[in-house]
Amino acid sequence: MANLDLANFVRPNVKSLKAYHVDNHDCKIKLHANENPFQLPTEILDLISCSFKNFQFNRYPDPGCQQLRKAISITTGIPAQNLVVGNGSDELLQLILQVFCEPGDGVAFPDPSFAMYSILAKSMDLKPVPFSLNDQWDFKADSFLEIAEQTKTKVVFFSYPNNPTGNCFSNDEIEKTLNNFQGIVVLDEAYYDFAQKTFKNRLETNNNLIVLRSLSKIGLAALRVGFAAASPLIVTELNKIRLPYNSNSVSQMVANEVLNQFHLIQKQIDLIIQERTHLFDALSKLNEIEVFPSDSNFLLFRTSQNSGEVFQKLAQKDILLRDLSSHPKLKNCLRVTIGTPDENSNFLQEIEKIL
Description:
The protein is an alpha/beta fold.
């Protein structure tokens, strides 16, 4: 009988990692994960139900996601041959690093930003290169380019809008980075639908650009559907290491129906944006809160009280937020996802009582 010390077999760079963690308390009002708070429209659910009647569960998915890439192309205006579908955009982040980086190379990203950039880099024996954002949650391209050169950075990730700060970075600074960085620039536009700001028009002029999008934020979080838009050469290289059948048939079918009826989803997006304005204005009136402008489907705010205590008190009232105070720049900061009008009202009532 084998009784090995398995810890000795784990790579040191993996052993030192902490897993990506999301609090998942059993609360009725979940405003912590940046999801669409609305169920899919009935019209789309009916179409999905009909599709399931003839669904072939015994067959493998289309490995090239041809129908889905065509639907994405029609919705975004990006040619299908420039698209790669991923099991969520997280998988695509990993594939990009696998294609372009060797052990020891630098992987840069703003700080604070999406935690998975650093986790993925460390897991692949790459060097995380965080560069600090200023008080307006923005950056200067000249400073970044200097850091990138010193650290042999091959890839830079920009969450655009940035998670967790909610803002889009300066257009001029992104442009300067695109034109001068001697590496791959990834614009992670997971929250594009709430910002309507994009760099996809630069794909034709900058062959070092990759644009990522996700359907998770607009209603398909359960199915994990993301896609990358890039030059044909980059698409070819990503497809070489993409796992066979990485996108399952259910995800492809439902995503296809959603994109074909996107006008129904757009109504939900418009309501979320409307509620974002309402929630921002209401929080701005509370003296105990500093709330930051957002282009996304969430708001970052700083409380005058200990954010951990505010988080727990809200959880006791069945309202779950994201506590971000472990980051040095986010002391006493919480992030609230824009919910339904009723959920947002309940949140506002409770936080006013607490503060």
